[in-house]
Amino acid sequence: MSTNRIAAELGISPGNLYYHYSGKRDIIRDLLAEMIDQYALHWEQGGHADQGLDLEHLRQGMLRGGELAWRYRFFGRELVALLRADSELAAVYREAYQHRMAQWSAAAEQLVAQGLLQPRSPLADLTAAVWLVTENWFTFLEITGEADRPEKVSPEKVAAQLDVVFAVLEPHLSPAARQLWKDLDRNEA
């Protein structure tokens, strides 16, 4: 996308855009910083950092995270190229990734401590699998043609990522947690 198109989408002149940014690289860096801030706010507001994390909060958090992923979907679509083109952006992204994975790992450890999660493989692998599903859900929808236009993405398509997350988690959930997940799924439907 050209800076002229970005300026047109914003309803400003290209000169005004260049007053604030020296080019697309600066715009992308600012958008990444905004995305990182939004995910941090989402994590704090969702109560994920509290000791009271449970499957219901986890599911709701994944749905809200899906909304953020949609908002910043171009990062998922262009991530590899963006990171290869800008080492500073890559460093910031990787630092944010490490931080988020540490948060996800802590949340998984809480679920293990509560007896809801009984990992049959290393917890780091399970956490990575869930992260891969949630981080790449919209890229998957675009690849399959289900999200080629924003208006085609329904709340049901966003929520469908939970079905895939459940498929990953199910063998690792306690019987009570498995039933709770299914009950939450029915209630949301």
TrEMBL record:
<dbReference type="InterPro" id="IPR001647">
    <property type="entry name" value="HTH_TetR"/>
</dbReference>
<protein>
    <recommendedName>
        <fullName>HTH tetR-type domain-containing protein</fullName>
    </recommendedName>
</protein>
<dbReference type="InterPro" id="IPR009057">
    <property type="entry name" value="Homeodomain-like_sf"/>
</dbReference>
<dbReference type="Pfam" id="PF13972">
    <property type="entry name" value="TetR"/>
</dbReference>
<keyword id="KW-0238">DNA-binding</keyword>
<feature type="DNA-binding region" description="H-T-H motif">
    <location>
        <begin position="2"/>
        <end position="21"/>
    </location>
</feature>
<dbReference type="Pfam" id="PF00440">
    <property type="entry name" value="TetR_N"/>
</dbReference>
<feature type="domain" description="HTH tetR-type">
    <location>
        <begin position="1"/>
        <end position="39"/>
    </location>
</feature>
<dbReference type="InterPro" id="IPR025722">
    <property type="entry name" value="TetR"/>
</dbReference>
